[in-house]
Hints:
Blueprint: H1 3-13, H2 25-32, H3 56-78, H4 83-103, H5 108-128, H6 137-154
Helix pairs in contact: 1-2, 1-4, 3-4, 3-6, 4-5, 5-6
Amino acid sequence: MSASKLIWKLAAAAGLALGIAATGLYAAEKNAHSHEHGAAPAKLTLNEGKKWATDAPLRQGMENIRKHMDASLHDIHEGKLSAAKYGELAKKVNGEVGGIVANCKLEPKADAQLHLVIADIGEGIEAMEGKAKKVKRQAGAVKVIGALEKYGAHFDHPGWRAPGH
């Protein structure tokens, strides 16, 4: 069993809520939860014009993901990151996602919005691992960076900056 699947199965076993249905592993996790937040929002939105509240575990996990991405950003942009290094980066990012899912406690609407960001990060992880057919590993890294930018635009995280900024 891959580390990615193990983390998501552990999150599901802990009874954590995942408010979206995405493809593959994320859809399976949603169905395994003991409680749901209702229908998933179709797209990321603000909370009546304001950013969604965050908590300390979410902020720390997102900071760590940003730092991991920043550390490899130059090689990603230059096309110099090896498949093995993409795999290592994916593993680090996935570990942080597991920590966020396990420890973050947001109100249901904010949680549902966060899981749209997490789904994008998950798709990026799969591509960086080389598991997404016809998607380059570099495109996976770009997907994660885009998700971090969306996070900053939609969640109240004092001092937040997207990778490379």
